[in-house]
Design brief:
Elements: H1 9-27, H2 31-35, E1 38-41, E2 47-50, E3 55-57, E4 71-73, H3 80-95, H4 108-127, H5 139-152, H6 156-171, H7 188-195, H8 211-228, H9 232-258, H10 272-279, H11 284-292, H12 305-325, H13 331-334, E5 342-347, E6 350-359, E7 368-373, H14 376-388, H15 390-398, H16 402-407, E8 413-414, E9 423-424, H17 428-441, H18 447-456, H19 462-468, H20 479-492, H21 498-505, H22 510-516, H23 520-526, H24 532-554, H25 563-571, H26 582-590, E10 597-598, E11 603-604, H27 618-622, E12 627-628, H28 631-654, H29 659-678
Antiparallel strand pairs: 1-2, 3-4, 5-6, 6-7, 8-9, 10-11, 11-12
C-alpha cells in the first residue's frame, strides 16, 4: 500500500479495499492473513513490508536529506493482541484516518511520531497485562495510567503529546474497530501540565551563543575552511583514488568468486573485506603520503587513513556550520543546499550574497525555492563542500537505486564504508564533530559567558540549562543555536529589524521573528555607555533655551495668547521685581520652579507635571490656564484651520456628517479662529450648513 500524501484516485480505491480487508481480518482475529497484507510499496511497485513485519520502512516516502527517522518499529511488544492492535492503529492512521481534520491525509513524519508516542502507551499496557487500549475507558485504569505518566517525570509538552495520540484514537473511534473513550475532564494541555515533571513545566528557546564563545567557534570553523580551501582539489583526488583503489581490489576478488577460483569465499563472508584489502594495488597510507609530500604546508594532510577520513568529515561539518551561522537557515534548509546554491547579485553598485535552497516548513508536500542573504565566506564553504563530495555524488548518480539518485544533489555526504554508497552526514557522528570543534576552539564557558548567556536567553528553564551550560566545561553546541544566535546578534548590533528577521527566517508572523531575537535588545541596552558630559551639555542647552524664551516673553512687546500668555503680558509691568534679568530667570529655571513644554500648537507652563494626554487635540488644551501661544504657534493654528476645512469638505462629498461629528470639528475651528483673530491672521470663516430634519 502507498501512503496517502497526494495520491491519484485509483491508489485510494486500491488502499480502501485493503483497509477493509485488514479490519475484517482483525475483527475475526485471523492473524495469518492479516500479517500478509502489504504495508509499504516502493515507487516501482515492489512490496517492502507486510503487516506482520516488526519494522515498517518508510524511507521511500520521506526526504532522506531532511528526515532522520525512517522506520516504524513494533519490536517492543510480545503480547499478540496488543501488537496487532497498535499495528492496526498505525495502518489505519497511514491509509484511512490519518488526521482529525483532513481524513486520511497525513505526513509521514507525523505518522512516525504518533506511532512512537503510542509505543510508550502500549509498553505500559503490556506491563499491566492488558489486552487492549480500551482498558483506559475505565476511570480507575485511566487514573492509574495518569499516575504512571507522572512517575516518568517527563516534560509537560511530551506528556501532552502522548495524551494527544490517545485523543486521536478516541476521535476516530467511529471509523475503526477500537472504541476508546477517555474519562478525562480537563484539556490535553492542562492534563500535560498536571502530569508533567514540576521542573520541566516551562518550555525554553534554543540557546543563543555568548559572543566570546561564538567568535571562538566560528573563527575555528572559518580557519579550517581557509586552510583547506586552496587544496580542496587535492583532497578530492585522494578520496577518489582511495575509492578507485578499493573498487579495483573488489573487482579482483569478485572475479575469482564468480569464476569459481575461490569456492570458499562469498560476499557475505567475514573474510571478504580482508581479501579485498589484500587485493588493492596500493596501500591507503601510500596514497596519502604521495599527495602529502606535494603540499607546501606540511601537516595539513594526515598520514593515517582514519585521521584523513575524520578530517574529511570535519571539514564538511565546518562548512555546514558556517552556512548556518551566516544565514540563520533551518536544519532542513541547510541540508537542501547544493553545489550551485551560492548566488551573487549586484544592485546599484552594491553586491549581495545569498544561499539558495528549498523552504519546506510550511509547505511539506511541495517545497518552495527560496534564498537567504549571507556572507561571502558561505560561498567558500559551499565550494569546498561541493569539491569534497564530488566523487560521492557521482557514485549516487550512477546508482540504480532511485533513493541514491535523490541524495546525489546533496553536498553533505560521507562514505565511511567503501563498499556501501555514500550517505547523508547527520546524527551522532555529526554531533561528535561539533563537540570536537568546540574543544579545538577552546570554547570553555567562564563566569562572564554564563552571565551573558542568561542575558541573551531570557526564556530559560533553570532546571534544563544548569545541566547543559556548566562553567569550566565546553559549550554544548547544536545546529539550531546558529539560527538563534544570528537573530540575536543582528538585533544586538542594529543589523536586522524584526521585519528583516521575519523575511530572512521565512516566518509567517512577526511575533515569531521577535521571539527569535529576544535577548538582543537587552544585551544592546546593557552595553550602552552613558556619556555624562554630553548629558550635562544637553541639560545646560535646554535650560538656556527655556530661559531665553521666558526672557523674550517678559521683556518684549510680542503678542501672546492663551490664559497663561495673557497673564505673562500683564506681568510685564512687574518685570523689575519678578523677572528683572536673564540671570534671575535662569536661576528660576535651574531650580525647577519654572519650566516650559512645547506642544504641536502651544507652550505649556505646567511643564512635565502635565500628562498631556490630549496634546494632539488643540481644543482640549485651548482653555487650559497654563497655555501660551506666540506668533510662531499661531501659524500652526492657521494650518489646523485649513486642514479641518479640507477634511470636512472631502468627507461631505462621500457622506453626510452627523451633528456630533460636525460639532467635533466646529469646536476646533472656532478655537483656531479666536487665535487668528487675536494675531490678525487672515482666514476664511467656515459657515456650516445646518440642516434641520423633522422626525
Amino acid at each position: 500500500m502507498r501512503p496517502l500524501l497526494a495520491t491519484p484516485e485509483e491508489i485510494i480505491k486500491e488502499n480502501t479495499v485493503l483497509v477493509e480487508r485488514a479490519i475484517q481480518y482483525y475483527e475475526s482475529k485471523d492473524w495469518d492473513n492479516l500479517n500478509k497484507i502489504p504495508v509499504m510499496i516502493d515507487q516501482n511497485g515492489h512490496v517492502l513490508n507486510h503487516f506482520g513485519d516488526q519494522t515498517w520502512d518508510v524511507t521511500h516516502y520521506v526526504d532522506v536529506k531532511i528526515v532522520s527517522k525512517k522506520r516504524a518499529s513494533f519490536a517492543h511488544l510480545t503480547t499478540t493482541p496488543l501488537l496487532q492492535e497498535q499495528k492496526l492503529l498505525a495502518f489505519l492512521g497511514l491509509f484511512a484516518v490519518g488526521t482529525l481534520r483532513q481524513g486520511a491525509m497525513i505526513k509521514t513524519t507525523t505518522f512516525l511520531e504518533r506511532n512512537l508516542n503510542l509505543t510508550q502507551v502500549y509498553k505500559y499496557l503490556e506491563s499491566i497485562k492488558a489486552e487492549s487500549i480500551c482498558i483506559l475507558n475505565h476511570p480507575i485504569q485511566f487514573a492509574r495510567f495518569c499516575e504512571y505518566l507522572k512517575s516518568l517525570k517527563m516534560s509537560c509538552s511530551y506528556t501532552a503529546k502522548l495524551i494527544f495520540a490517545l485523543n486521536w484514537v478516541e476521535a476516530v473511534k467511529n471509523e475503526i474497530p477500537i472504541k476508546l473513550l477517555l474519562p478525562r475532564t480537563t484539556s490535553i494541555a492542562e492534563l500535560g501540565r498536571q502530569l508533567g515533571c514540576p521542573t520541566k513545566l516551562e518550555s525554553e528557546q534554543f540557546y543563543a551563543i555568548p559572543s566570546r564563545l561564538m567568535q571562538l567557534i566560528y573563527s575555528k570553523a572559518i580557519e579550517y575552511i581557509d586552510n583547506y580551501y586552496p587544496i580542496r582539489q587535492t583532497l578530492l583526488d585522494i578520496h577518489t583514488e582511495q575509492q578507485e583503489n578499493y573498487e579495483i581490489g573488489k573487482a579482483v576478488v569478485d572475479r575469482k568468486i564468480k569464476t569459481g577460483q575461490w569456492n570458499w569465499l562469498t560476499p557475505d563472508s567475514p573474510h571478504y573485506k580482508v581479501e579485498i584489502s589484500k587485493a588493492k594495488p596500493q596501500r591507503p597510507t601510500d596514497i596519502l603520503q604521495s599527495y602529502a609530500s606535494n603540499i607546501e604546508e606540511k601537516g595539513l594532510i594526515p598520514l593515517k587513513i582514519k585521521e584523513f577520513e575524520w578530517l574529511y568529515s570535519h571539514l564538511l561539518m565546518c562548512c555546514f556550520l558556517v552556512c548556518g551561522a551566516f544565514s540563520g537557515m533551518r536544519r532542513s534548509e541547510l541540508y537542501g543546499l547544493h553545489s550551485d546554491s551560492f548566488k551573487t547579485l549586484k544592485l546599484k553598485e552594491q553586491t549581495f550574497y545569498s544561499l539558495q535552497s528549498k523552504h519546506s516548513k510550511m509547505t511539506p508536500a511541495v517545497p518552495e525555492k527560496a534564498e537567504w542573504l549571507t556572507s561571502p565566506i558561505a560561498g567558500k564553504a559551499i565550494e569546498l563542500a561541493s569539491d569534497l563530495t564530488q566523487n560521492m555524488r557521482i557514485q549516487l548518480m550512477l546508482s540504480n537505486d532511485r533513493l541514491d539518485n535523490e541524495r546525489a544533489s546533496s553536498i553533505w555526504l560521507v562514505q565511511k564504508i567503501r563498499g556501501k554508497t555514500p550517505n547523508i552526514f547527520t546524527g551522532p557522528p555529526f554531533v561528535t564533530h561539533y563537540k570536537r570543534l568546540v574543544e579545538e576552539a577552546g570554547a570553555i564557558v567562564n563566569e562572564q559567558d554564563y552571565e551573558e548567556f542568561k542575558l541573551l536567553n531570557p526564556n530559560l528553564n533553570i532546571y534544563a540549562y544548569t545541566q547543559k551550560i556548566i562553567i569550566g566545561k565546553p559549550w554544548a553546541l547544536t545546529t539550531h543555536q546558529l539560527r538563534r544566535t544570528f537573530a540575536v546578534f543582528g538585533k544586538r548590533h542594529n543589523l536586522l529589524s524584526d521585519v528583516a528577521i521575519k523575511q530572512q527566517y521565512k516566518h509567517l508572523y512577526l511575533p515569531m521573528a521577535q521571539w527569535y531575537s529576544e535577548g538582543g535588545v537587552a544585551a544592546k541596552i546593557k552595553h550602552v555607555k552613558v556619556d555624562s558630559e554630553l548629558n550635562n551639555l544637553l541639560r545646560e542647552v535646554d535650560r538656556e533655551v527655556t530661559t531665553q524664551l521666558l526672557f523674550q516673553w517678559y521683556n518684549s512687546d510680542d503678542k501672546l495668547f492663551g490664559k497663561k500668555g495673557l497673564d505673562v503680558v500683564k506681568d510685564r509691568q512687574n518685570t523689575a521685581v519678578k523677572y528683572s534679568s536673564w540671570d534671575a530667570l535662569y536661576a528660576q529655571v535651574s531650580a525647577g520652579r519654572v519650566s516650559i513644554a512645547g506642544t504641536l500648537h502651544s507652550y505649556c507652563m505646567a511643564g512635565y507635571e502635565c500628562r498631556m494626554e490630549k496634546v494632539v487635540s488643540p481644543t482640549n488644551c485651548f482653555n487650559c490656564e497654563n497655555v501660551v501661544i506666540d506668533e510662531a504657534k499661531a501659524q500652526a493654528w492657521q494650518k489646523r484651520h485649513l486642514w479641518i476645512v479640507e477634511t470636512i469638505t472631502e468627507m461631505e462629498e462621500h457622506t453626510k456628517l452627523s451633528q456630533s461629528q460636525l460639532s467635533h470639528f466646529i469646536t476646533q475651528l472656532r478655537a483656531a479662529e479666536k487665535v487668528m483673530d487675536y494675531f490678525e491672521i487672515s482666514y476664511t470663516p467656515y459657515k456650516p450648513e445646518i440642516e434641520i430634519r423633522q422626525i
